[in-house]
Amino acid sequence: MALGDLMTSRFSQLSLAVSNHVVEGNGSSSDCHEDDAAAAADLASQRRDFDTASTSSYANAATSSATAPTSMAYLPQTVVLCELRHAAFEASTPTGPSDSGLVSKWRPKDRMKTGCVALVLCLNISVDPPDVIKISPCARMECWIDPFSMAPQKALETIGKNLRDQYERWQPKARCKVELDPTVDEVKKLCNTCRRYAKSERVLFHYNGHGVPKPTANGEIWLFNKSYTQYIPLPINDLDSWLRTPSIYVFDCSAAGMIVNAFIELLECGTSNYTGSARDCILLAACEAHETLPQSAEFPADVFTSCLTTPIKMALRWFCTRSLLHESLDCSLIDKIPGRQNDRKTLLGELNWIFTAVTDTIAWNVLPHDLFQRLFRQDLLVASLFRNFLLAERIMRSANCSPISHPMLPPTHQHHMWDAWDMAAEICLSQLPSLVEDPNAEFQPSPFFTEQLTAFEVWLDHGSEHKKPPEQLPIVLQVLLSQCHRFRALVLLGRFLDMGHWAVDLALSVGIFPYVLKLLQTTTPELRQILVFIWTKILALDKSCQVDLVKDGGHVYFIRFLNSVEAYPEQRAMAAFVLAVIVDGHRRGQEACIEAGLIHVCLKHLHSSMQNDTQTEPLFLQWLCLCLGKLWEDFTEAQLIGLQAEAPSICARLLSEPQPEVRASAVFALATLLDVGFDSFRDGVGGDEECDDDEKSRFEIIIIKSLLNVVSDGSPLVRAEVAIALARFAFGHKQHLKSIAAAYWKPQSNSLLNSLPSLANINGTASGNIVSSQIGPLIRVGNDNSAVVRDGRVSTSSPLATAGIMHGSPLSDDSSQHSDSGILNDGVSNGVVHHSRSKPLDNAMYSQCVLAMCALAKDPSPRIASLGRRVLSIIGIEQVTKSVKSAGSSARPGEPTTSSPTPFAGLARSSSWFDMNGGHLPLTFRTPPVSPPRQNYLTGMRRVCSLEFRPHLMNSPDSGLADPLLGSGSGTSERSLLPQSTIYNFSCGHFSKPLLTASDDSEELLARREERERFALEHIAKCQHSSVSKLNNNNQIASWDTKFETGTKTVLLQPFSPIVIAADENERIRIWNYEEASLLNGFDNHDFPEKGISKLCLLNELDDSLLLVASCDGNIRVWKDYTVRGKQKLVTAFSSIQGHKPGVRSLSAVVDWQQQSGYLYASGEISSIMLWDVDKEQLVNSIPSSSDCSISALASSQVHNGQFAAGFVDGSVRLYDIRAPDMLVCATRPHTQSVERVVGIGFQPGLDQGKIVSASQAGDIQFLDIRSFRDTYLTIDAHRGSLTALAVHRHAPIIASGSAKQLIKVFSLEGEQLGTIRYQHTFMAQKIGSVSCLTFHPYQVLLAAGAADACVSIYADDNSQTR
């Protein structure tokens, strides 16, 4: 299977495993047609349910609980917030590809070369040394020459020449010098010459001592005197002092181990004359200290040298005598093997290739990692000698002789890979006679590599990080050299690298890097996808490869691939990732990619994805943006190219994409376009002439406006990038923002507040529709935000202008009405206010930025709030945080406790400044009434806002960063203190994970989900068909004192475990197991508790459930692992309500969650209902509530997608369906007796989408069926004037209501009262407070009730108590 297919099938299986929104369908390949069909059928039946207006009774709507449509309707398939970004956003500081540490261990520390070879032969042919007694017949061959076949001197020279040729075959560029039967002086001269020539390269010293005595115990080798009448000893330390380091010695003589021992002693006592810090000496010796060389005639006399320099010939000759072929094969044919060693298509070349693969594999599997790197990867000649040394060990051990080395190697002569070599050799030798006879005969390649790849594939199917690594890895490397096996080898290698960082590290340590780098020069189309995949995996581990890629021009390969339309988008995303790593912080890479036109390629694809209606692969868009951002990050030339290519407007369009990662990446790309200038060099730096300041300001305005649109995005990932972008902007425009910020806090009484009373007049003169936009429902400006500034002037009706009018001119101390309008109409007419130093933008823009920064400093996500505070510190606003935990105190941003007007409250006055694209900033300050200004601004501000902002005391307007933490050092140190973006590093994590295989735990998750679905369906059937018996005080199964000082505000029962979750006014959450009566966990929702929690919901209740906590100010926080003490983690946090009505004191948010659609509905003291897609973490719609009153209760249907009901303060009820064109399905006013707020609302159990239950504070409960024209078909007067809570069971025909008079009543859907629960005096004789919350268990008849006295009780009907 080609990797492309492998990847597509993988992606399609993924989408199945994660079962995406059912509504959208989820098949992306033929693998899942059947599932598609099933899903479509389910969907169709669900839709039929919806479309038929039959008023079917409860029972026949759900005749069989196990039928597909019912289970689909009751058991939603949607799973939200389980992406990589939700793992631990708050805690994580993700790191991208590393460029140091562990990863660069695989790189050979310093590549080396053996530059000089000194060959010393002491043969003294025809004179045997005194300590040798030779047998007969005896080994005679030296370098495959019989010394007695010619005159001694000629033989000596021929042997010397042959040895030189043998070495030159391994290292053609090395200079070889031969000394035949030399004296000590000649050897000294040879060594000094070699070292001088080699400089710092390695010198090889080869000593053949077959014609002299054995080395001495002191470690001396023997040479001759001039007249050959004496043997002269040469101490090893002399030799070492001449050759110095780095060096490699080969000693081919009997008792060679003596020399090795002496050398080791020398190294250990450090008496060497060499004074360098590190000794790099390698020794190869033919035998141990007590051994003599083999004399058997089947071996050459220099068997050790022959193994080291002519391994194939030696191996085959040795094997031939032991093989079954020895009778039929003439050994002399071995010398006639056709072909060349470096041509793998010939017999000799293939044998050499297989031998290299086998010896490499043995070494890699047996040697420690560092030793393998040093001996087999650092120096080509050393590597060849050590590969051949393994052969010498095998052959010579068969003759009871043990070659030794320093550093010492473990024994390898019995490694099972030698069997594979023997088999390959036998197959090749069997063809030899016919090939020698007929030179044109076809040579049949060995199956060795095919079989080894199959073995590797078997390992891939069963291996893992915790098992022994695949021993075939070095062979896979060798196979890359061959065209016929290359594709298969690359695909298998890709699968291996996909197993994780450890696999990439292993492959790199084997030496894969130069091979895959070289392959980028091939043009074979079928290799492109897999090569891109392999490089993705390598760069996800080690960023330092960027240098090699640029040096070899590899970036062009990836740009070409990125631009090819036939590749899958996921693979092109990988190419974009590779290019992003190439340019990440690497100026040479940035320059090379700009020359190759990468900016235009990326922008072209972004632009075309906007044109197409089809959904572009989000990963591709994300990486195009990240690649662009990294390309022009801190690189002015690239920024100018991007600006001229309209990059800001292209990237800005991505800010409404459904995937948070794409939006965050687009913000990153826009942010890196902002020039983080210093005032000293903002004018005309490096090529700024091409792009004049007006032009630059125009682009800056487009960028900032785009960013302000997403400052209240639902995803913390996006908001974090916006905060970082605003920090860059604040850095570049520090002075202007500081003066604006300072103006807000100026203590002159005539400054800002004096202009507030005249605000209405200004608005009147400037534009009529600003006032209406502030008072009426929020007007959403269309998508073309750039149009506001494009034509060179700011239209006065735009939110920009409003802010300008609002906040007065910071450049003048007495910003009267006149100066306000003046700035707006004159200064901004060309988009900028002229200023002597850097080019400022208009003040309206600065005001909006300051507001946005303040909003970010109060973000519900702690990480973003701290980023926001850092941004404010750049513009000189310090923030004092007081964490107040006492009950009743308002200690949270946005909940004012005083009516005194303050500059800061004034600052946040307008709700329309952020009306663009429906993104409304969650600033919740009260509108200041017009009254004489207070003199003490700071105390007023402190009372308004618990996160207090105050300007720093600035010595001079130019004092750099005002924050004492940041100091005012030099520009560069200041810049390094800017908060760093995390989206790039976070996104890199995607490619570190396995991309081709589904995670192992998915089966376990599916099994658990099936079990829960079975449990749910059984219990749903029980709820539907069994009549509910009485529920009263006797049915209490548990009671829990939560110890909340302010009483229980809201309560929730977990569906699949006996757990109850409760929360109080101070946003403390406690989780209790009611069967074991034990507290599991307790934590604070956040550090600045205020108005309490309005709702607890479970997300993904059939899977790993998440706890959604909605605060009364509309802030949503979602927690995971919340039942484990101290282990709770914040998954995401956002403000669900934006743009509340003027003059509103508190938001009293109401929210509800709909698992089917993945939507969160939120409203409160605002004139619309916010519709959030929680999976996309995006505000998808703002539905006008069509009423002047605020919403007091909200309920979404748990079986019908997109349907929800709202109850209003004036007693009216409206039903909405987001699929209907105008959203509102019907409006009615059931509570007519007295106009009281709707306290609770809910859909009646079953598949009937038109039946609603609504309860008002007056105490009446109304049953409505919106398809009949009568307003209500049943009314229950439950409690007189004191109803406080309503609960409707999801599946059983039962509802419950609670009152302020400590009373709970339970009714059937027919209105029959099933029971009354009276709260008793507790044993402490406390009076119990009013019932504050009621909730039913989703699948059992269990009722949990919380009261104002911190007590939570759980009641079960008689049937459930058997549980």
From TrEMBL:
Among InterPro entries, the record links this protein to:
ARM-like, ARM-type_fold, Raptor, Raptor_N, WD40/YVTN_repeat-like_dom_sf, WD40_repeat_dom_sf, WD40_rpt
* Region Disordered: start-end pairs: 799-821, 885-904
Raptor N-terminal CASPase-like domain location: 111-264
Q: Which Pfam families match?
A: Raptor_N, WD40
Q: Where along the chain is composition biased (Polar residues)?
A: 812-821
Q: Which family does it belong to?
A: Belongs to the WD repeat RAPTOR family.
- By what name is this protein known? Raptor N-terminal CASPase-like domain-containing protein
